[in-house]
């Protein structure tokens, strides 16, 4: 394994990037060296706040920087496809915020470009790297709750309707599915695998993006996931995994949890607490950094096949709701 430090760049210095960058203090062999925005002043302000050496007023400039090894892409999801393809062709590895893309075709293009250019790409699904979720998967694999039969999860926030906000704007990849549903679908797919059928019902905002929906995923042999997402009201944000010999409660909010309770049939509940490093983003940053140091082009924990499967499930559901997302040309 190489000991060369991995040099990171940030594309899209918005709210999530503000939260993520401080977690680099917990990531060995990694350093943020550059940031880019479509607005030079915004990039400069971000660089000043986080003591980053270089700032760029275009994405093309940071992609062309030979001193950047990997880019964290935190722009609106509708922009991911275009940026990712240009970046991997420019020799950069990528950590791409969820949702990975807005269409299945876009996600497939990104993955094909990464493989054709031999570049590491991973979706920034931080949930899979949280210590509680890692422990949950270990318990499931050990047979702690027997055969897994079902997943039940919800995620909702109260967002007053504003057609100019990105959450309600189809041109910015808005809607509950791509913003919240990606966590639910990824969790269900992680536990039970890719479903063979998807049924979705919900409602739309006047702008045409989805406001809320319920999903029933058929994983075969009677196994199922029941998922609910909404931008209309807050929900607990809890997930449950049911097995033939018990169940696991992942306590709110399940997409970045610190606690769960293991319920074995005939035994007292077993609370388990495992706090994350920093704000919780460090774990996915460590994964990418270690993969790059080891020369890998894909993560075994968040493989691209899973990302494509999740994108396909979401877009299938959106089509049933009457929503047809598009990518930035």
TrEMBL record:
Keywords per UniProt: Oxidoreductase
Limits of the GFO/IDH/MocA-like oxidoreductase domain: 134-248
Source organism, top-level taxon: Bacteria
GO molecular function list: nucleotide binding; oxidoreductase activity
Domain Gfo/Idh/MocA-like oxidoreductase N-terminal: 6-123
UniProt-listed InterPro entries: Gfo/Idh/MocA-like_OxRdtase_N (IPR000683), Gfo/Idh/MocA_domain (IPR050984), GFO_IDH_MocA-like_dom (IPR055170), NAD(P)-bd_dom_sf (IPR036291)
Keyword Lyase: no
Protein family (similarity comment): Belongs to the Gfo/Idh/MocA family.
Protein name per UniProt: Putative oxidoreductase
Organism: Labilithrix luteola
């Amino acid at each position: 394994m190489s000991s060369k430090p991995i040099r990171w760049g940030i594309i899209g210095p918005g709210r999530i990037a503000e939260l993520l960058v401080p977690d680099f203090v917990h990531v060995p062999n990694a350093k943020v060296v550059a940031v880019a925005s479509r607005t030079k002043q915004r990039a400069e302000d971000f660089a000043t706040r986080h003591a980053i050496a270089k700032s760029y007023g275009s994405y093309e400039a940071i992609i062309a920087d030979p001193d950047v090894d990997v880019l964290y892409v935190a722009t609106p999801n509708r922009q991911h496809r275009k940026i990712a393809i240009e970046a991997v062709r420019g020799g950069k590895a990528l950590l791409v915020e969820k949702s990975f893309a807005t269409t299945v075709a876009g996600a497939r293009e990104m993955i094909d470009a990464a493989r054709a250019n031999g570049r590491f790409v991973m979706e920034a699904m931080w949930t899979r790297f949280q210590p509680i979720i890692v422990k949950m998967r270990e318990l499931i694999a050990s047979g702690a709750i027997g055969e897994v039969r079902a997943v039940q999860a919800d995620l909702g926030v109260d967002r007053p309707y504003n057609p100019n906000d990105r959450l309600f704007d189809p041109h910015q990849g808005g809607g509950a599915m791509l913003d919240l549903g990606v966590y639910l679908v990824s969790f269900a797919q992680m536990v039970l695998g890719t479903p063979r059928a998807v049924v979705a019902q919900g409602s739309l905002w006047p702008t045409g993006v989805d406001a809320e929906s319920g999903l029933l995923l058929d994983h075969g042999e009677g196994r199922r996931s029941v998922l609910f997402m909404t931008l209309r009201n807050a929900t607990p944000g809890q997930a449950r995994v049911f097995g033939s010999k018990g169940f696991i409660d992942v306590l709110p909010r399940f997409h970045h949890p610190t606690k769960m309770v293991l319920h074995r049939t005939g035994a007292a509940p077993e609370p388990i607490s495992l706090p994350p490093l920093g704000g919780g983003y460090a774990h996915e940053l460590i994964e990418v950094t270690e993969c790059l140091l080891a020369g890998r082009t894909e993560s075994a924990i968040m493989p691209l096949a899973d990302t494509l499967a999740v994108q396909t499930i979401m877009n299938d559901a959106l089509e049933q709701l009457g929503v047809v997302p598009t990518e930035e040309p």
